[in-house]
Design brief:
It is built from eleven helices and six strands. Helix 1 packs parallel to helix 4, helix 1 packs parallel to helix 6 and helix 4 packs antiparallel against helix 5. The chain folds into two domains: 203 residues; 114 residues, no CATH class. Helix content is 51%, strand content 10%. Strand 1 and strand 2 form a beta hairpin.
């Protein structure tokens, strides 16, 4: 039989924790796409499903132990989940995991398993926190179920909004903040008393909001990681949004002109490179404007301009400024971007 014991605390705690779990899932997709590649999207989804699935198995196996004190178990799992979002990701950064080695080096699989396990822990804890009130009828089941689904929807929206409002390095503060909000509803016990253990644990978790955000280490094979190793490199600009993380870097060592004709005997001017989620997306040569760099006329993309006069040009998926400068330098009558 359902009970309303603690109903006023359980429902909002489930709501905010579900929002935190969904936000964490979406943010991990962005962070691992930045660190590795977008191929990790299925990995994060499977981690979330595995974590929630294992939590159900754990609740079934430990049901006799949890049955005697479900309110206490629920409160502690909620509090522990809040800090796990950021701590799990910080811990995963120290795992020497290289995706390229999985195909031919069997010894790399234990590291991958540990990496996978660490990132699945927050979903296991969140699944347990949602499962306890459903399994042991803490409050009205329908309200708890609705709070879980509504919270997940809100978390997805907040995660997408955070991509445009929060620097990529600090994105995990979003699920952390939502998790701490959920923890605030379970700090007390009936009677209004604050158990010291709960308050201490929640307080320590709150410190994660003020320490420096996690640094984003990149796979050594990503373009941005390679560019950062060039001499005298400097970051010109950083932008972030729902479509990705964008960074512009300059180094005297950047000279990018793939397909350049061997007939070109001039010099490639200094360039800035534009990266999206760590991958090269465009080049901005210095000294463009009214005098486009001469090397642009010796790239394969310049061939259509040699076959027509005063062309009308449409630029799709603009990558840097080379396309516009090439059109201007080859007599385009107009350029539509």
């Amino acid at each position: 039989m359902a009970t309303d014991t603690g109903h006023g605390r359980v429902v909002p705690a489930v709501f905010f924790l579900s929002a935190a779990a969904m936000a964490n899932e979406i943010i991990l997709i962005r962070l691992l796409s930045f660190r590795f590649w977008p191929h990790f999207v299925p990995l994060i989804i499977s981690q979330a499903m595995l974590g929630f699935g294992v939590s159900g198995v754990a609740l079934h196996l430990l049901r006799p132990r949890v049955a005697g004190k479900p309110e206490k178990v629920f409160a502690w799992v909620v509090i522990l989940t809040a800090s796990s979002f950021e701590l799990a990701f910080r811990a995963s950064r120290h795992v020497p995991f290289d995706p390229y080695l999985l195909l031919w080096d069997p010894s790399s699989w234990p590291a991958f398993a540990l990496f996978f396990f660490l990132l699945a822990v927050p979903f296991f804890l969140a699944g347990t926190a949602v499962g306890v009130p459903l399994s042991f009828r803490l409050g009205r089941i329908g309200a708890v179920y609705a709070a879980s689904f509504t919270g997940s929807a809100v978390g997805a929206v907040l995660a997408l909004l955070s991509f445009s409002l929060v620097p990529t390095e600090s994105l995990l503060r979003v699920p952390l903040g939502l998790g701490l909000t959920a923890s605030a509803f379970v700090l007390t016990v009936p009677g209004g008393r604050f158990p010291a253990g709960r308050v201490l644990c929640a307080g320590l978790s709150s410190l994660l909001l003020v320490i420096p955000p996690v640094s984003l280490s990149l796979s050594p094979y990503k373009d941005l990681a390679i560019a950062r190793r060039l001499p005298e490199v400097e970051t010109l600009s950083v932008r972030f949004g729902i479509t990705g993380d964008y960074r512009a870097l300059y180094s005297p060592g950047i000279h990018n002109a793939p397909g350049l004709s061997y007939l070109f005997d001039g010099e490639i001017p200094p360039q800035a490179a534009v990266f999206a989620d760590g991958e090269l997306r465009g080049i901005v040569p210095r000294g463009g404007g009214k005098t486009p760099p001469a090397y642009l006329g010796y790239l394969p993309a310049a061939l259509p301009y040699r076959m027509t006069n005063l062309p009308t040009v449409a630029q799709f998926a603009l990558r840097g400024t080379e396309g516009i400068l090439m059109a201007a330098g080859n007599g385009a009558s107009s350029v539509t971007v």
